[in-house]
Write a structure and sequence with these properties.
- There is one protein chain.
- It is built from 13 helices and 17 strands.
- Strand 14 and strand 15 form a beta hairpin.
- It is an alpha/beta fold.
- The chain has three domains: 213 residues, 3-Layer(aba) Sandwich (Isopropylmalate Dehydrogenase), CATH 3.40.718; 133 residues, 3-Layer(aba) Sandwich (Isopropylmalate Dehydrogenase), CATH 3.40.718.10; 37 residues, no CATH class.
- Bound molecules: 1,4-dihydronicotinamide adenine dinucleotide.
- 1,4-dihydronicotinamide adenine dinucleotide binds next to loops.
- 1,4-dihydronicotinamide adenine dinucleotide (NAI) binds next to loops.
């Protein structure tokens, strides 16, 4: 694509964003159009306030999901993919994965085609939200989950299949004991992909002044995959971040690290779930493999009151797709009941990654202020007294009005 004044660039591991970037979006399915419609004006208001009209986003919708199919196009047309790749930053609503129709999930297709290897989910508490723990505000973490490999790579053979029989035979030749009736799945964890995920997590910590990165793994049991993930993580810290980040084990005993250095340590995954509940204040960035990260990010979100208040991003090198953490919620679609919070916070995260931090912070603050005012959608209100229950659109307007 020819570079124009509206094209976002990527140089020295950073986005270079013009004052008027063109950003593609698609609302997705179910509640997607409602939460997207509530969100874009909030982001525009924040950008306007933060930069006094010198910056603005030119949103343009690209065909994808249900709307594309209704227009006779593919679920994820090749041109849409090219447009996102060219524009580098895009934002989407949740998309339905048709069951058994032969369509791949849009999310999987995007992730694979654009190599969006880091799923990033910041999780923090917003006062006013009901949470299941006594001190939800103690949790404030950013989870970096490897997005492309592990047992999620789709290398699976059903029990009784020729492939399963063949593979089991090979493994038995190597001494493995495998029952005849077993299905088999392969866990793939590579050095390159572990290193780039940990690299991205450490960079984020350095950028944000977060002092601790914890590698979460199950390496005590799965040494060649999970254990290797942690070892490769430490390797990249030593090789590429000397003087800026240090493995906790490399610090001389009893010596506190210098103030501006990120300390990298690790935790066995099951202990991590306990620690998040018992000592959440100790953690900053968590970097982990795909399956651990899937469980951990939903558990962390639940701890602060649910997926409605957690944003999401899928980051590659020089391309990023932002999306809320919930699905299409077909049970409430079209009724104005959806909470656009995750989508709004996802937009704030996008602004941050663009380097438009002043605008991103304004969105977060306005969202927090709206909840503090006791103004929220039905799912968060949960029948509590003194709460003003708003529709999806009303909540978006309330947040936009609160932009400072
Ligand atoms: P879901 O997240 O859509 O819904 C689970 C429950 O949470 C439902 O009761 C729903 O009403 C509620 N809920 C979800 N988002 C909400 C919101 N913003 N405000 C208020 N309530 C909300 O998960 P489910 O039912 O498992 O999946 C439905 C569809 O969404 C499936 O086709 C699935 O593949 C897709 N999905 C897409 C995702 C994505 O595009 N990133 C992520 C997860 C699911």
């Amino acid at each position: 694509m020819a570079k124009t004044a509206s094209t976002i660039d990527w140089r020295d591991e950073r986005y270079v964003v013009p004052d008027r970037p063109a950003i593609p979006f698609f609302p997705g399915d179910g509640i997607g159009p409602e939460v997207m419609a509530a969100t874009l004006p909030v982001l525009d208001a924040a950008v306007q306030r933060a930069y006094g009209g010198t910056r603005a986003i030119d949103w343009f919708e690209v065909p994808a999901a249900g709307r594309a199919v209704a227009a006779g196009l593919d679920l994820l047309p090749a041109r849409t993919l090219d447009t996102i790749r060219d524009h580098r930053i895009a934002i989407k609503g949740p998309t339905m994965t048709p069951v058994g129709s032969g369509h791949r999930s849009i999310n999987v297709a995007l992730r694979q085609a654009l190599d969006l290897y880091a799923n990033v989910r910041p999780v923090r508490y917003f006062p006013g939200v009901t949470a299941p723990v006594v001190n939800p505000a103690a949790l404030d973490v950013v989870i970096f989950r490897e997005n492309t490999e592990d047992v999620y790579a789709g290398i699976e053979y059903a029990n009784g299949s020729d492939h399963a029989r063949h593979l089991a035979g090979l493994l038995r030749d190597w001494g493995a004991r495998i029952p005849d009736d077993a299905g088999l799945g392969i866990k793939v964890i590579s050095r390159l992909k572990s290193r780039r995920l940990v690299r991205a997590a450490v960079r984020h910590a350095l950028d944000k002044g977060i002092r601790r990165v914890t590698l979460v793994h199950k390496g005590n049991i799965m040494k060649a995959t999970e254990g290797a993930f942690a070892a490769w993580g430490y390797e990249v810290v030593r090789q590429e971040f000397a003087g800026r980040a240090v493995p906790a084990g490399d610090l001389p005993h009893g010596t506190p690290p210098p103030d501006d250095v990120v300390v990298v340590d690790d935790r066995i995954a099951d202990a991590m779930f306990q620690d998040l509940l018992l000592a959440p204040q100790r953690f900053g960035v968590l970097a982990t493999t795909n399956l651990n990260g899937d469980y951990l990010s939903d558990a962390a979100a639940a701890q602060v009151g649910g997926l409605g208040v957690a944003p999401g991003a899928n980051l590659g090198d020089g391309v990023a797709v932002f999306e809320p953490t919930h699905g299409t919620a077909p049970d409430i679609a079209g009724q104005g009941l959806a909470n656009p919070g995750s989508m709004i916070l996802t937009g704030a995260l996008m602004l941050e990654v663009m380097g438009w931090t002043e605008a991103g912070t304004r969105v977060m603050d306005a969202f927090a202020a709206t909840l503090r005012d006791g103004r929220m959608t039905r799912d968060l209100a949960a029948g509590r007294p003194g709460i003003t229950v708003l529709t999806t659109g009303e909540f978006g307007q309330a947040v936009a009005r609160r932009i400072g």
